[in-house]
Amino acid sequence: MLMRTDPFREMDRIIQQLSGASGTWSKPSVMPMDAYRQGDTYVLAFDLPGVSSEAIDIDVERNMLTVKAERRPAEKADGVQMELSERPLGVFSRQVMLADTLDTEHIEAHHEAGVLTLRIPIAERAKPRKIAIGGDSGRKQISG
Question: What does pTM read for this prediction?
Answer without folding.
Answer: 0.69
